[in-house]
């Protein structure tokens, strides 16, 4: 079986990815800058090799990924560490996935790495985490429910999880996003282009129906910089795409400071993770007024991020996916991928209200 490299393997998410690969019996390379921590993450398990490579050393990165079929990049912030890892993976012919939620980095990957990846014959699928992956896939299925190629007036991608514990890496990403976007809620898609500086028009969304949390009525939301804004317009035809988050959660990210982030534990403990539920939803309105909504939900978003990233990497290695930089719904069959997550407690549905 082909080896898969995990960069940032000694970090919080990286260790979860390593554990998921070992659970599936996939040989792996645990890569990063700290050899001792990498050895601890690998746990001396057969099939887990350790290779030391700092993100600032292109030659060491290329050597770390040499002989691997794919790289799963878990290091954050991606604005700082993402591109060198991706560049090294492409240079040695490795497929690549990552767990980023950073819009500017994500857009830069699509803008600059498509042609190099195609020339090298590798596939790059960024944003395979519990928000970017399921959010992109359910958005595609929701739009499709209104008919293939339907002309949508607006598509809203919503992160509707309730407050819960976050990792230090997630908090750092949120802090970096706030510095970039302030109160503007990041990018949105309007009239054929990505734009900044305008908050989402959507202020409430219907509580998701079957297959999600048992809520009713309308949920208050606010603009938020989700990765789906960068990926969804690449495979869904919509005049406007916007991203929102549950209104009581977004201010918690807005209150983060360097001091608060530094004081956070590396990640939530197992009990907190098991009790936390993540929920991504999509709401589509066609130009003729028809509507559809979809949702995907599960527990332990960090554990599911590891499952999603590993599932994606294995599909790139064993499947026939075109080379280049692709959104999750471009690389994988959305319904099939979400169905593959069901054994891990994921539930999803798409509704077309009468």
TrEMBL record:
Highest taxon of the lineage: Bacteria
InterPro entries: NAD(P)-bd_dom_sf, Sacchrp_dh_NADP-bd
Domain Saccharopine dehydrogenase NADP binding: 4-101
Pfam families: Sacchrp_dh_NADP
Residues spanning the membrane: none
Lineage: Bacteria, Bacillati, Actinomycetota, Actinomycetes, Kitasatosporales
Name of the protein in question: Saccharopine dehydrogenase
